[in-house]
Design goal:
single chain, 3-stranded antiparallel β-sheet, 2 helices, 31% helix, 14% strand, DUF1059, DUF1059 domain-containing protein
Length: 74
């Protein structure tokens, strides 16, 4: 399986987070993403948060330049 990543720069936030995380396994990436979401963004570790984060994973490695922010439905 190729390396996977999640990039906070893709999602607008008041803190303009610039963290991108990558890992060789989905489980490792999910654990790191949940820890970041809880510690930095104030989310609660729930099964729903884990499901949402997993849908945001991309194959490969994060780009050096910040990607365009996606609009998040309210």
């Amino acid at each position: 399986m190729p390396r996977q990543y999640i990039d906070c720069r893709e999602f607008p936030s008041t803190m303009n987070c610039s963290v991108a995380l990558s890992a060789d396994t989905e489980g490792e990436l999910l654990d790191a993403a949940v820890q970041h979401a809880v510690a930095v963004h104030g989310h609660t570790d729930t099964p729903e948060l884990r499901r949402q984060l997993a849908t945001l994973f991309r194959s490969g490695t994060p780009p050096l330049q910040a990607p365009a922010a996606q609009k998040v439905a309210a």
